[in-house]
Design a protein that fits this description.
By secondary structure, the protein is mainly alpha-helical. Helix content is 83%, strand content 0%.
Length: 126
């Protein structure tokens, strides 16, 4: 296989497997929710390293979601979502400092609702 053939095969594969932006956001919500739930499970067995790893992943996803907001979109919507993400980021950072399952469960509830809204209302079902 030549370099050209390899590149073309890779390009074709990427074209076939690339998902649209709506699906990417849904996957990010799903990932954040999954890691948030894992953090709570790890807290029950007092696995501090796993808690920290899960919370750092939640934090990274929330930062990516916030930072990927389109500044050219409706200003009020962007401001609302930015504030919401900032709230969840602050809660997650607090959880990293001193894990409190009851406090962090707020993040889980928000993420679950956001994922539900995104997949049913924005994407039209799932």
């Amino acid at each position: 296989m030549t370099a050209n053939e390899a590149y073309n095969t890779y390009r074709d594969m990427m074209i076939k497997t690339t998902v649209d932006k709506l699906q990417i956001v849904a996957m990010l919500y799903e990932g954040a929710l999954s890691f948030a739930k894992k953090a709570i499970e790890y807290a029950k067995i007092d696995d501090e390293e796993a808690i920290s790893d899960s919370l750092n992943r939640v934090l990274g996803i929330l930062l990516a979601l916030r930072d990927s907001l389109d500044p050219n979109a409706d200003r009020e919507t962007v401001e609302y979502l930015t504030a919401l993400y900032n709230f969840l980021i602050e809660r997650t950072i607090k959880a990293l400092e001193e894990f409190n399952e009851e406090e962090f469960s707020i993040v889980v509830r928000y993420l679950a609702k956001m994922h539900e809204i995104w997949t049913t209302d924005v994407m039209g079902g799932e």
